[in-house]
């Protein structure tokens, strides 16, 4: 695709209008290091305009029957599927993931929209038993109001859609701030939403810096809720700043997700499932596996089979349909992965595969890191304590169940955990004992439209997905009616 064509996405959406800006930002292809687009850098005034538009549109949108809101959402989902290839190509260009993964992300996004189109019709209230004669007690569900949505780089369509679809289905209006590295995906997504004829001001997209756009959304009292996906450090800052206006918060933050393979597990099944999870999107998945604990009796077998699969991975530009590992989305991510691996190696870790930045030939200008497997690790190493967010698989050993559960829980994070065992008693013990918002048993896939997603401890608060995700955008109103 030519850069001149891609530059047609050089606008924001405010009050139903395409808006450009005097200040701009370059969008970089992480596979080539080349500028592929130029987008506006919003000012404070433009952000306030978007917020005012959302506030003005809120009452009308909230009063629409849920079925009417669903019609807009269904049409939006149809448009995404109709333009699936085009949208996927935009993702590959600015985020770097392989084209097949990008196509899957758009397909999954359409499923999410359709789910919330239907789920919005089921935001049921309650009639409570009265305590007095001639009395009715009712609980109603109403939309929160204007919401600010702040999304990350790794799933530039999926995270945007999980937030926007739920908000719209609940009757909220929104101002969306996408990650500055991957804004053009959001521009295109919102364009297809606008083409449904959705009322002006219901959906607004503002591209810009956290200290300008984010500051307005977090501090302005007209924004009744913030939904943020990103790092724990930024999530804590948002939580502190949002306290001044007592905003509702949904924070989907960092993870340090363990996978445990017990001696009674199906080793081949565990290898396949952990491999697929670990190297999805080059390891840039918040609920991706960060630590692999394998019982000492099967570690050699597991490591050999796992490393063999990793050595077969093809790295390259995501437009190549045979590529399975693309670049990391930003150089800062690449630098962190390199630092963590080098520190571990210097402390005695053994490199079974990869272990280096790729810089030769077609890799010279991109953010590529070789798919890596490490063993001979200790719990004290930074690579075990920090979120890697890259294509690196650390393998550790354990002796018994109590030990590995304690090690798995020895982190401030609690987003997801996975384990493999055929022992039903152990399965229930670990379901109870692992401190995580989501648990995969004999599998590593947690992302389904009908299921809640979110962490415990410092991995965040609130849920996305399923009817739980819709509830995050609804307020309860209790009514005691006497007659």
Main traits of this protein?
six-stranded mixed β-sheet; 483 residues; alpha/beta
Describe the structure.
The protein is of the alpha/beta class. The chain has 16 helices and 20 strands. Strands 14-15-16-13-12-17-18 form a 7-stranded mixed β-sheet, with helices on both faces. A 6-stranded mixed β-sheet has the order 9-8-7-10-11-19, with helices on both faces. The radius of gyration is 23 Å and the shape is globular. The N and C termini lie far apart (68 Å).
Question: Briefly, what is this?
Answer:
With 483 residues, the chain is an alpha/beta fold. It has helices at 3-6, 44-63, 66-82, 84-95, 99-119, 158-170, 183-194, 210-219, 232-242, 267-278, 299-311, 331-346, 382-385, 401-409, 424-433, 466-471, and strands at 12-14, 17-19, 24-28, 35-40, 126-128, 135-143, 146-150, 173-177, 203-205, 223-229, 248-252, 257-261, 289-295, 350-353, 372-375, 392-398, 416-420, 438-441, 460-461, 474-482.
Query: Overall 3D geometry?
Result: globular
Percent strand: 15-25%
What average pLDDT do the residues reach?
A: 96
Strand order of the largest sheet: 14-15-16-13-12-17-18
Compute the separation of the termini in Å: 68 Å
What portion of residues is helical?
25-40%
How many strands, what sense, and barrel or not for the largest sheet? 7 strands, mixed
The assigned structural class equals alpha/beta
Return residue spans where pLDDT drops below 50 for at least 5 consecutive residues: none
Number of helical regions: 16
Q: Please provide the count of β strands.
A: 20
Give me the Rg, rounded: 23 Å
